[in-house]
Amino acid sequence: LLKNMVAYFSDKEKSRIEKLDMTMSLSMALDAVAREGESLLFKTSSDLLRWDPSFEEMASFFRDSGIKGALVFRRNTLDWNVCRVRDCFDAGARGYPVGEDGKRDERCFDRRKDPSHPTWALLKAARIVDKMQRDTVIRADTAKRL
Fold first, then answer.
1. In Å, how far are 32, 42, 89 from 4, measured between CA atoms?
2. Residues 6 or more apart from 55 whose CB is under 8 A from it?
3. What is the pLDDT of residues 58-67, one digit of tens each?
4. Cα-flanking dihedrals φ and ψ of residue 137, to 5°?
5. Are 20 and 28 in contact (CB under 8 A)?
6. What is the dihedral of CA 119, 116, 45, 19, to 10 degrees?
7. Residue 1 pLDDT > 60, yes or no?
8. Which residues pair with 123 in a beta bridge?
9. How many CA atoms lie within 13 A of 49 on its CB side?
10. pLDDT per residue over 102-113, tens digit each?
């Protein structure tokens, strides 16, 4: 969070960044945007939230600070998994991206910059159903815990 928001902080605050935990980081970010009369959008993955050891602390901080939250998920988990494969997330656990010729495409997220060469997803059928079921459980668990 702080690496992307460093512009909001003074030089004195920047020197403390390395020593901060997530809730302190969020608190500083909220203070910084409040001084500017702006809002803070905090975006993360439900998967990261679920496995982050500071999740409960962050969830408590959100509630105690009166932060409003919105959970947004793609309803179509197959579509979401195809997108993850095409962007090279999960290091091949779900499959890997291929070009029109069927050969592996290494452009990953950069593929979005060049729509003239479509990228497809070669899915690992034996693993994709398990991944989709796991994703559904993670989403429900995250919604409950927030």
1. 13, 11, 20
2. 49, 145
3. 778 888 888 8
4. -65, -45
5. yes
6. 120
7. no
8. 95
9. 21
10. 999 999 989 999
Taking the C-alpha atoms of residue 29 and residue 47, their distance in angstroms, rounded to an integer, is 23
Distance CA 11, CA 67 (A): 27
Distance CA(67)–CA(98), nearest Å, equals 41
In contact, 1 and 29? CB cutoff 8 Å: yes
The angle at the Cα of 70, spanning 64 to 75, to the nearest 5 degrees, equals 145
CB 79 within 8 A of CB 121: no
Q: Residue 11 CB: number of other CB atoms within 10 A?
A: 6
Helix, strand, or coil (residue 96): strand
Say how many CA atoms lie within 13 Å of 98 toward its Cβ. Answer: 9
Query: What's the token pair of residue 127?
Result: 């693993």
Report how far residue 85's alpha carbon sits from residue 98's, in angstroms, rounded to the nearest whole number. 10
- Band the pLDDT of 30: cuts 50, 70, 90: confident
Q: Rounded distance, CA 62 to CA 42, Å?
A: 11
DSSP bridge pairs for 95? 123
For tokens 């439900």, name the residue.
46
